[in-house]
Design goal:
Length: 149
């Protein structure tokens, strides 16, 4: 599928307006279905969304990004918080949020426990237990569930 041609087709069918820029796949996108770049007008889309959720959900994501695109070039509020964006998104039946993808790996939380007061801390990133201490009693922290590398 030629992505730019597909986006042009969706733009004409659902908005009645032409899409005059480029659309491209961006496999580095993780938590989002697409991105609009006001600086040069191009759109990036997450190929995993299309592969896992199918064409119907992908079309709704294209509509979402086209809402940003068309509102920006009309000089109206194109950001998520703007009333014009919310109204247009509802009119064209676009997705507000991308459903969770199974291929996006959830990083396990690291659990640190204070040796003195037994306070627990959950973190996504490792912390230096030689440098940092418990915030309550200043006791030494130990990692309870080391990651399996």
């Amino acid at each position: 599928m030629n992505l730019t041609d597909y986006v042009k087709q969706v733009s004409l069918e659902d908005f009645g307006k032409p899409f005059k820029h480029q659309a491209q796949w961006n496999s580095r996108l993780r938590s989002t279905g697409g991105r609009f770049f006001p600086k040069d007008g191009h759109l990036d889309f997450n190929p995993k969304v299309y592969q896992e959720l199918g064409l119907e959900a992908f079309r709704k994501i294209v509509r979402h990004e086209l809402c940003h695109y068309h509102l920006y070039y009309e000089g109206k509020g194109y950001k998520h918080k703007d009333v014009a964006f919310k109204k247009l998104l509802k009119e064209v039946d676009g997705l507000r949020f991308v459903p969770t993808l199974s291929s996006v790996s959830q990083t396990p939380l690291l659990v640190y426990i204070c040796q003195t007061c037994r306070q627990t801390y959950q973190r996504k990133r490792r912390i230096d237990t030689k440098r940092y201490r418990c915030g309550l009693c200043r006791g030494k922290l130990i990692l309870q569930n080391p990651p399996k590398d």
